[in-house]
Specification:
The chain has helices at about 5-15, 20-25, 40-45, 80-85, 125-140, 165, 170-175, 185-195, 215-220, 245-255, 255-265, 270-280, 285-300, 305-315, 320-335, 340-350; strands at about 55, 60, 100-105, 110-115, 145-150, 200-205, 210, 225, 230-235, 270, 280-285. By secondary structure, the protein is α/β, with parallel strands linked by helices. A hairpin with a 6-residue loop joins strand 3 (about 100-105) and strand 4 (about 110-115). Helix 5 (about 125-140) crosses helix 8 (about 185-195).
Length: about 350
């Protein structure tokens, strides 16, 4: 790798944090870097001599003779490292996933996705958010999935962002703050919004604490059920912040503008009963049971009509009549000639439960 190329990569990565680890994985599939704690460090290691790292106008050099520097949690940007064989490492201890996935045995096609940090009230870390995104993308590829229920373990949905964990590494946090060019969302926004993009319904079952980022993940679902004694809050105001995990987009679809402003400005903590009165969710004595019942009803319908109904509503929500009518015709034309629509018609005529084929809509 030439010095000019290496310097260009170093400059873009270190000074502009041009891509987060997920984007790097997509664009630069390579081996795991075992040499350094961050991209800039490793890129500098390949420069001979290493140029000064310029950050906020203060030049300094990163040492290249560290005996045991920590490994980068992802592939390195260096072309030399990408082409090098991976270094054997010891097997890390097995830990429970931060996001668990369970396929229902009683309701075929239903998947339970749970936030799994019970000792921290399911608070959100960058790793948890990334696992949430990965889970959504994995389920999208599974055409047998008909519905998803989002919930939290140990009686709490989520207490919001874990600031202590997230701020341990400001450069890492900033790298995940940069939006992905194709999706238009960063990691914090994609974790809730990825569920809106799925071609099947997502239902949030809220109990216990649902604060900050937890509210925004719940709002990323198509439907929400909450217990009356749950605690809700757009808590970012407490920390001098705004709801930026796609929360404003979701809130303005559900509430009047003055109510959105009030919740975002005050950080008021309110009950699940009050959340239902506002229209953020539906009250249920047992949110999980209510979510399962709704999922059961939806699964009885054609997976293609369900997928296109969700897509049609979402894509036309802010469009005018003319464009909405055009979208209706387009989606309906596809369904009229679909095999699952034919199966639904025949089953209705014979008054028997339909047996649908796997979903064709992506």
């Amino acid at each position: 790798m030439s010095t000019i190329t290496a310097f260009a990569l170093w400059w873009l990565t270190v000074n502009y944090v041009a891509a987060d680890l997920t984007t790097v994985t997509t664009l630069f599939p390579g081996t795991r870097c075992q040499l350094c704690p961050d991209f800039g460090h490793h890129i500098l290691r390949h420069l001979k001599p290493a140029p000064p790292k310029l950050f906020r106008g203060r030049p300094f050099r990163i040492p290249t003779d560290s005996p045991n520097p920590p490994a980068l949690p992802g592939p390195c940007l260096s072309l030399e490292c990408m082409n090098a064989p991976s270094t054997p490492t010891s097997t890390p201890p097995t830990t429970a996933p931060l996001v668990s996935t369970e396929y229902s045995e009683s309701i075929p096609g239903l998947v339970h996705v749970r936030l799994n940090r019970p000792n921290k009230l399911n608070s959100l870390t960058i790793d948890l958010l990334q696992q949430l995104i990965d889970t959504a993308h994995t389920l999208r590829r599974d055409r047998s999935v008909r519905a998803v229920i989002l919930s939290g373990t140990d009686g709490n949905f989520s207490s919001g962002l874990d600031f202590a964990d997230t701020l341990k590494s400001p450069p890492r946090m900033l790298s995940h703050f940069i939006p992905r060019p194709l999706r238009g969302t960063n990691t914090f926004q994609e974790a809730p919004w990825a569920w809106r993009r799925l071609p099947f319904p997502v239902i949030a079952a809220v109990e216990g604490y649902c604060f900050g980022g937890g509210v925004q993940i719940a709002l990323g679902a198509d439907f929400r059920f909450t217990s009356n004694d749950a605690h809700w809050s757009v808590l970012e105001a407490k920390w001098g912040l705004v709801p930026d995990m796609s929360g404003i987009m979701s809130l303005k679809q559900l509430l009047p503008i003055d109510e959105v402003k009030r919740l975002a400005m005050t950080g008021e903590i309110f009950s699940g009963e009050r959340a239902a009165e506002l229209g953020l969710a539906r009250a249920a004595e047992d949110p999980l049971a209510a979510a399962e019942e709704l999922a059961r009803q939806i699964i009885e319908r054609s997976p293609d009509s369900v997928a296109l109904a969700k897509k049609l509503v979402d894509e036309t929500w802010e469009l005018g009549p003319r464009r909405t009518f055009a979208k209706e015709r387009l989606r309906q034309a596809r369904l009229l000639v679909s095999k699952n629509a034919a199966i639904a018609r025949k089953a209705a005529q014979k008054k028997v439960p339909p047996k649908f084929r796997p979903r064709t809509v992506r």
